[in-house]
Structure formats: structure tokens, C-alpha cells
Amino acid sequence: MAILPYVLVICAYLVGSISAAILVSKLLSLPDPRTVGSKNPGATNVLRYGGKKAAILSLLGDSLKGLLPVLIGRYLGLSFEWLILIAIAAFSGHLFSIFYGFKGGKGVATAMGIYLALNPIIGVAVIATWLSSAFLFNMSSLSALIATLLAPFYFYYTTRSLPLLIGLLVITIFIYWKHETNIKKILAGTENKIIKKKS
């Protein structure tokens, strides 16, 4: 049992390193997401050039990368400290994939999977925050930034776990870093909309 958590951390990173968007695009004979649109291997970019089916599959795949390793850790009764290490490992794999030259996506879908695995009710609350923000602002990136900023505090209010708060804040910081270009576009008023108005 002593070595098992370490093995889970390594496996979480390796699983996180598999890009669902790249695999789905290849399976559906779509362009590599790293070469089109925003060049981000994520569901939002896939949606723009590959349609809803490809985007949903990419979203589910990337979410499962965060969900399954943490769920296994919970099943084994690991502490919050170990769970957050497993979560960060899976998340880091998505951002810095060993299979794609240590490059990857922005991590939002994987983070959502992590939230659901840590606590399904709070995970649903985070997703509801994303959905309501998307409805209000019509921007996927802004919705993700709002939801992932609030997520650590949702969890801390419920669990009072400082390691969990710190670990989730680390995930939030990296998501903001990966969204640097989006943040600049939001401030400039040029960020892409989820649903574009017909002229």
C-alpha cells in the first residue's frame, strides 16, 4: 500500500498526457487541433472546426483523465493530500504531455473531471457556474476563468482542507496562465463568442 499512491501519481500523469482532442480528431479524420483555429488541443477548438460530436467526445475524454485517477484514489481511501497530488499529476499531464513534446491544452475539462471526482455535488456546482457564466457572457474562456477561480473556495468552504485549497489554487493559477492570450482578448473585447450573432 505504501508504494501504491506513488504509482497512482505516475499513472495519473501518463493518462493525463493523452490528448483526447488529438485522438478524436485522428479517429474522425479531422485536422490535428494543434494546426487549426486557436491551435489548442481542446474541446472548444475542436467544436469550431469539427462539430459538436467531436467536441463532446474530446470534452468527455479530457474530463475522464482527471476523474478516473482521483476516483481510484478516493476508492483506496487516500488522504486529501494524496488526492490533490494525483489530481495535479493528471492535470500536469494534460498541460505538459510527455507524448507531445511537453505541450498540451489549457486544462479546463480535466479540471472539471477532478472537481467531480473530489466531490460530485461541488463539481456540479462548478459546472453550473461555468454554464451560467456562459449564458451571461457567451464566452467559453471567461466562463472557465470564473468557474475555476471560484472552485477552490467552494471546496474549502465545504471541506476546510488547506492542502486541497492550495492544490486547487495551483490548478487555477495554471489555467489562468494558459489563458493569458484569452484574457488579453477579453479585455480588448475581441474574444471569440460561443454563439456568434448572425449579421
Task: Describe the secondary-structure layout.
Blueprint: H1 4-16, H2 20-27, H3 43-50, H4 52-75, H5 80-95, H6 108-118, H7 120-137, H8 140-159, H9 162-178, H10 180-188
Structural account:
The chain is mainly alpha-helical and 199 residues long. Helix 4 runs parallel beside helix 6, helix 5 (80-95) runs antiparallel to helix 6 and helix 5 packs parallel to helix 9 (162-178). The mean pLDDT is 94. 72% of the residues lie in helices and 0% in strands. The protein has one domain (4-188).
Cα-based radius of gyration, to the nearest Å: 16 Å
Q: Tell me the β content.
A: under 5%
Please report the total strand number as a whole number. Answer: 0
Multimeric state: single chain
Give the helix/strand class. mainly alpha
Mean pLDDT: 94
Helix content: over 70%
Number of helices: 10
Q: Which overall shape is indicated by the principal axes computed on the Cα atoms?
A: globular
Low-confidence stretches: none
Number of domains: 1
| Main sheet overview | none
C-alpha end-to-end distance: 61 Å
SSE string, helix = H, strand = E? HHHHHHHHHH
